[in-house]
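Hi F.,

I've been meaning to write this up properly since the lab meeting, where we talked about keeping a consistent format for the predictions we share between groups. The idea is simple: the sequence comes first, exactly as it goes in, then the structure tokens exactly as they come out, then a line or two of notes. No screenshots and no reformatting. I'm using this chain as the first example so we have something concrete to point to.
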Amino acid sequence: MRLPRFEYLKPENLNKLLQMLAIYKNDAKILAGGTDLLVRMKKGLLKPKFVISLKDLKELSYIKQNNENIKIGAKTCIADIIDSNIIKNKAYALFQACQKIGAATIQHYKGTIGGNILQDNRCIHYNQSAFHRSGRGACHKDGGKICYARDDADRCFSTCQSDGATALMALDAKLSLAKKGKKRTINLADFYTSDGIIPFIIEPDEILTEIIIPIKDGVSFYKRLSCRSSIDYPIVSAGVFLKPLQKNVPLEKNTIDNARIVVGAIGRSPLFLSSASLFLKGKKFNDINAFKKASNIAMDNASTFAVHNIGSTTLEYRCSMIFQMVFQALEQAVNLNQENQK
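Output, unedited:
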């Protein structure tokens, strides 16, 4: 498979990049690590006239902390996040998620956190070569009127399989977006459209510049299931955050003041499960039965979004594993904190 013809552009700074996006808009695509973009181009899923490289934009690569937030530049490579003590100490779920993204070569040389968040939704019926797709009618995401993942569906049900986005939503992260003459910050949970064809609300002349994680007292954890560890996309994943009510009280004797449970690789976006999260408020950190109940609620709620669009397993198995991923994430978040206190 060959890349289609395109014009390669390499702006020296963010201002020049925004000027290019203002001119070319839908005719241009951003190249950071290229681990998602170039594969889609080779398969004929994208044919941009212009590819704009972020290679020289070092101003978008950083990890820094103030009293309220952790700020990560969108071009920061996955390996830098894994190596960051700030992330390990304050956003452990993101550290774990980044460990699962791709092989070591992708983490160190190509993959970026912005690219992982903005990777296109996937579906086994769509993410194929042009020759493979030509054997039957086009699906919604390919410009047709058919969904092969869900019978009689009137829209695209492709799935968000981003490890980073699932962990970041559990951490209640925000995103900073920029375009020529304008900036805005939005909650990650509000970044998704519920449309598998165009899954993000980012505009054609906008770019993701920064990820903002609020610093909160609490514990977080990320679990994912895949066929071949980090080589494959997740079949199902879960990110959790638990905030204690009392300060200076051991976690096993403490009460949950706030919880965030997010399930990934099931819906068109990571799924923040409010009912399962609210159920844990007021429960004890050592209440295993409460964790099991919350995991069952999460499984029941998230399963309604699941469709047959991942070929390595059955739909029934993926849904049953939602319970396991959520429960293990909750349990291990508490256990890890107890081990660190010893």
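Notes:
Residues 1-53 form a domain with the Uridine Diphospho-n-acetylenolpyruvylglucosamine Reductase; domain 2 fold (CATH 3.30.43.10).
The chain is about 30% helix and 20% strand.

If this format works for you, I'll send the rest the same way.

G.
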